[in-house]
């Protein structure tokens, strides 16, 4: 009968009668579970438990809000379609920026180890730093009915709405989502201490007497770049130094990018005594530019610091001072998130950073 509440599998009534409010007269096909969750002011997981059924009990007041939102939006679930969508495979999709980048390779290794321990197969995809590919891969994974999607890469500061929508639709269909180093989207996320790690670098260089400092950054629209650069500059300013006096040159998070950016820095600021590269690959390029192209001794003339502590950092000449992130642990923790039931709100898992002092950093040269 029209207007009669229809019982959801979880025991709550999903009200589907039409609303008289003209603002909510939308075609049912255009309304998603995420729309209902947003209208009710609850998490996607809570809305799913109310409307699609779950062993976890939802508070009556939250269940009522979800039911009311479903009624206002005229949300109608498609049982057979949901059953098909939830027939998930034992495959997990893992999306990284560059599969040959040791940073992402280490994260992938940790994630794949946990997946293997749970009898899951990992399907690895590389975006080649094209943000549009992230959305494309999420949609492809949804079509393949993979169990979960992990995005392991720095998010963009703007333009994430389409990715948010794609991940939301993946979650609506029963898939699980976890992110690494992306705090701008409403999903379970592993968050490395990028800003705090960079602040440690600022304090180290300051304590060693460096005042003319340059920073080699990655693309400015990446959240990781904003966090690391911001953490360094904020700490530098807190030490009584002028943050605007710090020289900055942008690369592309690669060895070649670090090499070119370092040459640019010293062309503009030949008296720099220290270079902080926002990842280790760019630090490798900085070392090459300083020693081979510019004839500078490291650390006697110029100190160099990186970030991430990739496996190669200790084997460089000189060995690279850097900020250590537990990369494999980050990947493993992200995989563990999608293998456990989601909470009522997105989980944020902080990961610490440790400054590792090696031979590439020393006291500032005498003026």
Overview of this protein structure:
With 367 residues, this protein is an alpha/beta fold. It folds into 3 domains: 6-66, no CATH class; 88-191 and 328-351, Response regulator (Rossmann fold, 3-Layer(aba) Sandwich); 194-325, Rossmann fold (3-Layer(aba) Sandwich), CATH 3.40.50.2300. It is 41% helix and 16% strand. It contains 12 helices and 14 strands. Strands 4-3-5-6-7-13 form a 6-stranded parallel beta sheet, with helices on both faces. Helix 11 (280-293) links the parallel strand 10 (274-277) and strand 11. It is elongated. The protein starts with 5 loop residues before the first strand and ends in an 11-residue tail after the last strand. 46% of the residues are buried. It comes from Geodermatophilus saharensis. Residues 31-86 form the HTH lacI-type domain. It holds the Pfam family Peripla_BP_3. GO terms for molecular function: DNA-binding transcription factor activity; transcription cis-regulatory region binding.
